[in-house]
Design a protein that fits this description.
The protein is an alpha/beta fold and about 260 residues long. The protein folds into 2 domains: about 130 residues, 3-Layer(aba) Sandwich (Rossmann fold); about 120 residues, Immunoglobulin-like (Sandwich). The chain is about 25% helix and about 35% strand. It has 7 helices and 14 strands. The strands form 3 sheets. The protein has a 5-stranded parallel beta sheet with strand order 2-1-3-4-5, with helices on both faces. A 5-stranded antiparallel beta sheet has the order 10-11-8-13-14, with no helix packed on it. α1 links the parallel β1 and β2. α1 crosses α7. The radius of gyration is 29 Å and the shape is elongated.
Length: about 260
């Protein structure tokens, strides 16, 4: 049985709904979508066409907005569709498209929050629902380490590296610039420092020179790493990188922050 989609909305929201309908059309075809703007033509019996659409859907999208919540016609559509889904293998999906609440009777159903998630993500979820696929979308990897910095003097920058979520055990940090290695230095203030050194990295445009600091302890919430970076020439304006080294010999690292010295 082909996927049949019914789009229930209020005409005051038609500009947004038309955009959504045309995106769904590219995936499922116009003949498989009941969207009144193209499903009902001059001379058609409106009630008959609506009844036909409500009798022949596999997925019903109810677009929730202040306009649709106040519409008696839309209310009749979605309540009729909801009754059908109780005893049949049909999908009823509310799609919130404005700043409003979902009707109480629908609060036990998961809904798509286009208003909060954005058009592209919401339409992709709608397509997956129609096809019976999982709508899970992985989040970006959690960012644990953050860098805070402030100028102490004209030629010194104070940095604090904090762990937000979990401990980073015995990390090695690096501060890298394209300046010669003797143009700046790093002075750890935190306890637990095991080794300082220097290393070179090949970047896309130039070679970077870095001072490194290895810690015997973990950087964890409430126990940050703190250091001062001192530059010999206080008039220099440039960018420097704060890195977490994963393999110093191979030059593998994770960029924590890109800072422009002011």
């Amino acid at each position: 049985m082909p996927n049949k989609i019914f789009i229930s909305y209020n005409h005051n929201d038609k500009i947004l709904i038309d955009t959504i309908a045309r995106r769904l059309e590219l995936e499922f075809g116009r003949n498989n979508i009941f969207y009144d703007a193209w499903a009902i033509q001059p001379g058609d019996n409106i009630i008959g066409k609506m009844n036909e659409g409500l009798s022949d859907f596999t997925t019903f999208f109810f677009f929730v907005s202040p306009n649709s919540l106040q519409s008696k016609m839309v209310t009749l559509e979605w309540q009729t569709a909801l009754n059908r889904t109780v005893n049949e293998q049909l999908k009823f999906v509310a799609v919130r498209i404005a700043d409003c609440s979902i009707p109480t009777i629908l609060t036990d159903k998961a809904y798509i929050d286009l208003y909060g998630e954005g058009l592209d993500d919401a339409v992709e979820k709608m397509k997956l629902v129609v096809k019976g696929e999982n709508t899970y979308k992985p989040y970006d990897d959690a960012k644990n380490l953050i860098v805070e910095y402030s100028s102490k003097e004209d030629n010194t920058i104070h940095i604090t590296i904090r762990a937000q979520l979990y401990a980073e055990n015995t990390p090695t940090f690096a501060v890298a610039t394209n300046l010669p290695i003797d143009a700046f230095s790093i002075k750890p203030i935190s306890d637990g420092v095991t080794m300082t050194g220097s290393v070179e990295f090949n970047s896309t445009n130039s070679k970077l020179y870095a001072h490194t600091v290895g810690l015997l302890r973990a950087v964890k919430p409430g126990a940050p790493f703190i250091a001062d970076i001192r530059f010999n020439n206080k008039k220099d304006l440039f960018q420097f990188y704060v890195l977490l080294l994963s393999d110093m010999e191979k030059g593998q690292f994770k960029l924590l922050d890109l800072v422009e010295k002011q």
